[in-house]
Design goal:
The protein is α/β, with parallel strands linked by helices and 295 residues long. The protein contains ten helices and eleven strands.
Length: 295
């Protein structure tokens, strides 16, 4: 097998990403027939079908997924090579980054501004979602996630533990008192994410969800819970990194109970294996890692 036409590879990548011959043709500014011919040529070269076509859908085969991974590495390497031909040339190109709403608000948005001021020819595509997107299939360069590193296809750096803390405004604590024991905690209005309900206290092994008797606000949006606590309405149980600026400004005060919650996983900076060979991805990876640890 010998693939000699890069245009066929580009056509394949666009059809794979768009799941549409029509949309891929628009992106490449060529006809749908030309796209179809390129895919047919490539399928003839590799010796297996790449897409299952129907009147409504274009579905990649399992072999197409494997080829897509190699094709992305090839194109990224070519772009990096072209850039390195001129050592004085500014770093440029696009970086696709994804993270949760909370991390985007509390950390990434500020860091992107700083990074782009240093590298004005870089373009960043930020996908904010609380879902875990497949980095390879969605052609994502970097992701910041909470949890545990499981996939062997990803290179990861642990930024730190996802420590959960209790905090409230000075006005709330002056009005309702500062709990020190779990028994006293039950008397308070608590706000926390649904995904944290099953987290255990380290000593007593009691679930956090058992302390929701007076819970007046339920939401899956962390910024809503944060704002509710900042307005003095409740004790918030949130990730330390998400509330650090409010703690430093004394808008919120950390509450130290006799029993603390277990960490909810760790904060990871992830990238598909091989992506760090791309200089701009590696630069942003190191930039985010350094600034998270220094925040």
């Amino acid at each position: 097998m010998k693939i000699s036409n890069l245009d066929d590879i580009y056509a394949f990548i666009y059809v794979y990403q768009e799941r549409s011959f029509t949309e891929a043709a628009k992106k490449l500014k060529i006809s749908k027939a030309a796209i179809s011919n390129k895919i047919n040529n490539l399928e003839e070269k590799v010796g297996f079908p790449l897409f299952i076509r129907s009147t409504r859908n274009v579905t990649p085969t399992q072999d197409a997924l494997i080829l897509f991974q190699y094709a992305q590495k090839l194109i990224d390497s070519l772009k990096e090579f072209e850039s390195s031909l001129n050592q004085s040339q500014e770093m440029q190109g696009k970086i696709h980054l994804t993270c949760s709403t909370a991390i985007a608000t509390s950390f990434v948005s500020e860091q992107i501004t700083k990074f782009l001021s240093l590298y004005p020819k870089i373009k960043i595509e930020l996908t904010v979602t609380d879902s875990y997107l497949d980095l390879i299939e969605n052609n994502i360069d970097l992701a910041i996630r909470i949890g545990n590193l499981e996939s062997t296809s990803l290179h990861g750096k642990k930024l730190g533990a996802n420590k959960l803390i209790f905090c409230a405004t000075p006005s709330y604590l002056n009005k309702f008192g500062t709990p020190q024991t779990l028994t006293e905690l039950k008397k308070h209005n608590l706000v926390f994410l649904e995904i944290h309900e099953k987290i255990l206290f380290k000593k007593s092994k009691i679930k956090l969800g058992e302390y929701s008797e007076k819970r007046s606000l339920i939401s899956n949006q962390s910024n809503v819970l944060n704002q509710y606590a900042i307005e003095g309405q409740a004790i918030a149980i949130r990730s330390y990194w998400d509330l650090k600026k409010y703690l430093l400004s004394k808008e919120l005060i950390e509450i130290h109970l006799e029993d603390q919650l277990e960490d909810y996983g760790s904060v990871w900076l992830l990238t598909p294996t091989g992506k760090l060979q791309n200089n701009r991805v590696k630069t942003l990876f190191n930039f985010l890692s350094k600034n998270w640890l220094n925040q």
